[in-house]
Amino acid sequence: MLSSQVTPISRLKADAATLLKRLAEDREPLIVTQNGEARAVVQDIRSWEETQETLALLKLLALGEQDIEAGRTQPLAEALAELAR
């Protein structure tokens, strides 16, 4: 539930260790508010690393699609022969 993942910055300051422990256990991001407005999202390191890996793979896919659209392709046999050299 999203509402349980929202905390004011004052609570983050006062109870950081507990909140960090909860982040690591639940692996759910925490939305930090300031003056009632969402200002930041805090997440555990494993989730952040997984997100970065996913973004890198998506970028590679997008670059591959751009190459295909631009005609920068070659038959598999040619690519394999080039790699073998």
Automatic annotation (TrEMBL):
Domain of life: Bacteria
InterPro entries the record matches: Antitoxin_Phd/YefM, phD/YefM_antitoxin, YefM-like_sf
Gene3D superfamilies the UniProt entry points to: YefM-like domain
Pfam (any one): PhdYeFM_antitox
Family: Belongs to the phD/YefM antitoxin family.
Physiological role: Antitoxin component of a type II toxin-antitoxin (TA) system.
Name of the protein this chain belongs to: Antitoxin
